[in-house]
Design goal:
This protein is mostly helical and 155 residues long. Helices cover 76% and strands 0% of the residues. The longest helix has 56 residues, at 64-119.
């Protein structure tokens, strides 16, 4: 692979199994959009109730009470927007981090078994990074492969 065809640093270090990781991010985004929609509906219903209360009184829309409601809504929406954007950024980052720790072992196992397939022999034991999930797999796989290798040598 030439230097121009090599994946970017972000792709090599963070998106090591893009299909899986981006699927998780997409589910995360869909969930956040659903939460935002639920919050928005609740706000609309709450404000609708407040506006019905003011319609039954002698207050006009330009009077203090309605201005207060509009002011409160602007504060609410700006605060919600800020915190939802912050939650979105942290949530996507956390999803990528977790998926990286899960996808890494899968990618490493695929590469390991491809090496065995290509060379026809086990050249080294399977190892995962220190903080990867599925830490019990390398030991189980290594023991299983060693057992198969020993049985093949005896035959």
């Amino acid at each position: 692979m030439s230097a121009s065809q090599r994946p970017s640093m972000f792709r090599r270090k963070v998106l090591i199994y893009p299909k899986f990781q981006l699927s998780l991010v997409a589910v995360n985004i869909f969930t956040m959009i659903a939460v935002i929609a639920a919050i928005q509906l609740q706000i609309i219903f709450s404000i609708g109730d407040m506006q019905v209360i003011t319609e039954g009184t002698a207050l006009s829309p330009k009077q203090l009470y309605n201005r207060f409601i509009e002011y409160q809504m602007s504060i609410l929406y700006s605060g919600l927007a800020f915190y939802l954007i912050l939650a979105f950024i942290f949530s996507c980052g956390f999803t990528l981090f977790i998926s990286h720790r899960l996808a890494g072992p899968l990618v490493r196992m695929k590469k390991y078994f491809k090496e065995i397939e290509d060379s026809g022999k086990i050249e080294h034991p399977l190892k995962f990074r220190k903080n990867d999930f599925l830490q019990e797999l390398p030991e189980a796989i290594n023991k299983g492969l060693k057992s198969v290798q020993e049985k093949n040598e005896q035959a």
